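Subgroup meeting minutes
Present: P.N., E.W., G.H.
Scribe: E.W.

1. P.N. recapped why we're keeping a running log of single-chain structure predictions: easier to compare across weeks, and new members can see raw inputs and outputs side by side.
2. G.H. added today's entry (554 aa).
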Amino acid sequence: SSSSSSSFSSSSSPPPLQPPRWYGGGLQFGCTRCGRCCVGPRPVWANFSECATISKNIGIDPKAFVEEFTQAREEREGVDGFVLRKVSGPDGLERCIFLMEGEEGGEEEGGGGGGGLEGGPDPEARRSTCRIHNHCPTACRTYPFWPSALVSEYEWRAEATRCEGIAIAGTTFGQAPARGVPVVPSEEVERDLAVHMVHSSGGGYAYGESIELLAEVDEEVVADMVDEFHRANETALLFETKDLRVLDHKNDRSESTRSLTFKSNEALSQTEVVIDPLTGVPDFTKLPMPIHKAMAVVASGFAMAHVVSETRTSAEVCIVGAGTGALPMFLPRVGEVALDVVAVESDEDVLRAGVDYFWLPEYAPASERERENPESPGKNGNPRFVHAEGSAFLGGRSGAGKVPGFDVIVVDAYSEGLAPPKGLHDFSTFKSALNKDGKGCVIVNLIGPASWKSEMTKSANDAFEKVFLVAIENKMRHGNAHLLVCYSSPAAPSTSASTSTPSSDFTERANVTRMALGEYERNVILRKASGSRHLSSLIKDESWEMTWAQTTMA
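Output recorded in log:
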């Protein structure tokens, strides 16, 4: 949806940063036993003391506990411990090995620091149960009052999208308290924050021991610890409309970033850029989001491996869902290959925010005349930004008599919990918008339930001769993302060896083959991309990692 750009107004200076105690009125939280905090890739670390307590209470030898219930030994600040094992749940998602399905209408306590919440959202719904709830590790006992969720109200709002026990209400938010949800006083919030900080930095105590220790020290020690946390980690609201926010972030790694988020899903940043501390403007040679790092490496690596040759020195790239421009502004700066980028965004408010707050060049409407003629690169090597619906824009690139297509198309659009969104998920249209020389790549961000991801993978397989599922692990924020990477035929076969195994064959042998084929092409892409200084920096960044599996078989 679009609105008049007159709704945007820039002030001469941004509003002040959030006050250190933004949660002074307390925070409303009560565990509903939804179990969502126990599902997903976030690791749970337990020190030796906690492991000993858990093994004793479940009646198992400590050595046997480590072998059966942990998956890695990890040292933090000189303190040994273990990461609890993850298993695959009925929904296919990773979950803690101690999470169990509760009984309908049951009264056992679930995970999280708040215990059971009376009057949850659905008393008759099946609730989850933690097998070790009464002696779980500190990370579980202090949730959701983790440092990552308490930087400002905006991080807390984002955590609320993951935890149904959090209510964005009460005096802290200038609202009446939500009925039936306990108010946790700020003193208790900060107590758990301090305990979590001590534990995550290598504290060798169990939760109860940490509480006793903090009770014995001067209150000013705890206050100073929390003060230092808020001084090192700040978030400022720079601009907002009814649908989106632009936020400035400072963290304890001395890195400042700027992000755009939609209020409909505050846990997802649509765009994030690194702010140069000397100039105060975005550094477009860096990409802080792992999903954008992976897209940049794949798009550029494909162009270098399969498009550029002695007779051709550049590649045409289209990004649908350009947002406020982090990826489109990065790609022309790759250096080792000339990438002419057209960036398409359907939301004019987003483009206006990009111009006003992310130093983007002005954008142009996609008139019929402009769609019928090849777009020239933007000024000074920047991409050309176009305000248009993605499906209509790509449709103008397909069919007889239309303008030449693209070598690489990146679809990074999201709506109503799905990527690609409904209305922009026709893989045949994507393929038709590619160049007609037979070499092209479509990269699609994949978000949604397992059924949607399966449907999109099948659609990709129906349209393209070669499709890879790429998993991107974010090691800093402990999350995973997925891409579909689709090659049009005959786009550089990834291996001389072929197999007649059909795509519906999911035997162990076939899956091993898929992983091997995917890994081969991944290495081809990484080897080519490593020739660029900026791409090489992304590849060497240990905060993320990607694995490939081929979903179609030659």
